[in-house]
Design brief:
The protein has helices at about 25-35, 50-55, 60-75, 80-90, 95-110, 115-120, 130-140, 145-200, 205-240, 245-255, 260-280, 285-295, 300-315, 320-325, 330-340, 345-400, and strands at about 1-10, 15-20, 35-45. It has about 400 residues and is mainly α. Helix 4 packs antiparallel against helix 5 (about 95-110) and helix 15 packs antiparallel against helix 16 (about 345-400).
Length: about 400
C-alpha cells in the first residue's frame, strides 16, 4: 500500500513524497532509516484500487492453508524464528493473495504483534477457530503441534467434502443431461411433428393428442414457466439469507428422507472433530462450545449447541444437556459421558467423528447408487412416451389413409 508523508530532513528541510510499505509502522521505520523525521503520514486511497477489487474475487483454497500450516510448523521445529519462516514461505507461495497476506502478517509481527493477532486481521483467509487455536499454541508453548493439528483437522474436513462432491457429480450430470434432452424435445422436435400431424387432418391416438397438448402448452407458456422457476429460486435464496429463512432451510434439509440423515451425520462429525481439536489444544469447554457454534454451517445445530453451552456454564456438564436434545444422537451423548468420566473427552469425540463420517460415506454411496437407476428410468419413460406417441401417430395415419 502507498503512503503520503511530510517529514523533516536532517538539515531541517521540509519534504513531501510517497512510498510503498506493507503497514503504517513499516512506512515510519523506512522513513526513520532514511534519516527523515515524520511529521504526517497518511495512507493513499486511490479512486479505484484494482488490487483490492481483484482480491475480492481471488480465492485461497483450504488446501493452501493446510500446506502453509505444515510448512510453518516444520520451519519452527527446525529452529527458524517466526518472521524468517514467514519470509521463506512467502517466497514459495504461488497464490498472490496468500503471498500478500503472509507478507502483511510478517510485517505486523515485526511491529510487535503476535502471530495469532496478526492472523486475526485477515478473517477471510484465516477463520476465528484457526487464529484462536494459534493463540492457545502460543500461550502453551506448543505452536508447532497446534499448527500440525489444525492442518490435520482441515485435511479431514476437505477429504469428507471431496468424497461427497465426487459421489454427487455423476447424478448431477445425469440431471442436467435429462433437462437438456427434455428442453430440446419440447422446443425443436415436438413442434415439427405436431405441425405435420395437424396438416393431415386425421384423428390421432390419445397418447399423441396428449403429447401435442403438452408441446403446445410449453411453446406458449414455457418462457413464463422458466421465468417463474427462476423467480421462485431467487426468492428462496433471498429468504434463506435472513435468520428466519436460514433456520427454516436448515430444518427442512435435516428432515429430508435420505439427504437429511447424511447432512445430520456430517454436521455432528464436524462438531465432534472441532471440539476434539480445541479440547486437545487446551481451551476451556465454554470457549470450545463458543467456537464450535461459530464454525457450524447449520442454524439448527448452532442453536442446539448454544443451549448446551448455556447449561454447561450453569454446571450441568456436557453430556447431560446433549442428551436432552434429539439432534445429538445417542452414540454421541453416551461417548461424551464416557469421555467426561474418564477424562479422555478429546479421543472419544474423535472416535465419534470417525464413526459418523463412515456412516455418512456409506449412506451417500447408497443414495448415489439409488439415484442413478431412478434417473435412468425417468429419462427412459420420457423418451419412451415421446417415441410411442410418434410411432402410434404414424401407424394411425397410415391405417386411416390406407383404409
Amino acid at each position: 500500500m502507498d503512503f503520503a508523508y511530510i517529514a523533516y530532513t536532517e538539515d531541517k528541510k521540509l519534504v513531501k513524497g510517497k512510498l510503498s510499505a506493507s503497514s503504517e509502522e513499516m512506512a515510519t521505520q523506512l522513513l526513520n532509516y532514511g534519516g527523515y523525521r515524520v511529521v504526517n503520514l497518511k495512507k493513499v486511497v486511490p479512486f479505484f484500487d484494482s488490487e483490492k477489487f481483484m482480491s475480492r474475487f481471488a480465492r485461497i483454497k483450504p488446501a493452501e492453508i493446510v500446506m502453509f500450516s505444515r510448512q510453518l510448523a516444520l520451519l519452527l521445529e527446525s529452529g527458524t524464528d517466526i518472521v524468517t519462516a514467514l519470509d521463506l514461505l512467502q517466497e514459495q507461495i504461488t497464490n498472490n493473495t496468500l503471498k500478500k497476506t503472509i507478507g502483511e502478517v510478517a510485517s505486523d509481527i515485526r511491529a510487535g504483534s503476535s502471530l495469532s493477532v496478526a492472523l486475526s486481521r485477515h478473517p477471510r483467509e484465516f477463520s476465528s477457530m484457526y487464529y484462536r487455536a494459534i493463540s492457545a499454541g502460543e500461550q502453551g508453548g506448543n505452536l508447532e503441534i497446534v499448527l500440525r493439528q489444525m492442518a490435520t483437522h482441515m485435511e479431514k474436513g476437505l477429504k469428507t467434502e471431496k468424497q461427497i462432491r465426487g459421489a454427487l457429480t455423476y447424478p448431477f450430470i445425469v440431471v442436467i443431461v435429462a433437462v437438456i434432452v427434455v428442453i430440446i424435445l419440447a422446443t425443436f422436435v415436438l413442434p415439427a411433428f405436431t405441425s405435420m400431424y395437424k396438416e393431415f387432418g386425421v384423428e390421432l391416438p390419445l397418447i399423441t393428442r396428449i403429447l401435442i397438448a403438452i408441446s403446445d402448452w410449453f411453446s406458449v407458456y414455457g418462457v413464463y414457466l422458466i421465468l417463474g422457476i427462476l423467480v421462485a429460486v431467487a426468492a428462496v435464496i433471498l429468504y434463506m439469507r435472513t435468520p428466519r429463512g436460514k433456520h427454516w432451510w436448515d430444518t427442512t434439509v435435516l428432515k429430508l428422507p435420505v439427504l437429511g440423515r447424511i447432512v445430520h451425520l456430517g454436521e455432528l462429525s464436524r462438531c465432534c472433530r472441532t471440539m476434539s481439536l480445541l479440547i486437545r489444544i487446551g481451551l476451556p469447554l465454554p470457549e470450545v462450545m463458543a467456537m464450535s457454534i461459530n464454525s457450524s454451517n447449520n442454524k439448527v445445530v448452532a442453536d442446539n449447541l448454544t443451549g448446551v453451552q448455556q447449561e454447561l456454564i450453569r454446571g450441568e456438564g456436557l453430556s447431560r444437556p446433549m442428551a436432552k436434545r434429539e439432534l445429538f444422537l445417542p452414540m454421541m451423548t453416551q461417548m461424551v459421558r464416557v469421555g467426561e468420566e474418564t477424562g479422555n473427552l478429546d479421543n472419544t469425540l474423535d472416535t465419534v467423528a470417525d464413526s459418523f463420517e463412515m456412516e455418512s460415506a456409506d449412506k451417500t454411496a447408497s443414495a448415489v447408487a439409488l439415484i442413478q437407476p431412478v434417473m435412468t428410468i425417468i429419462i427412459g419413460l420420457v423418451v419412451g412416451f415421446v417415441v410411442l406417441a410418434m410411432v402410434s401417430a404414424m401407424y394411425s395415419i397410415y391405417g386411416q389413409f390406407s383404409g
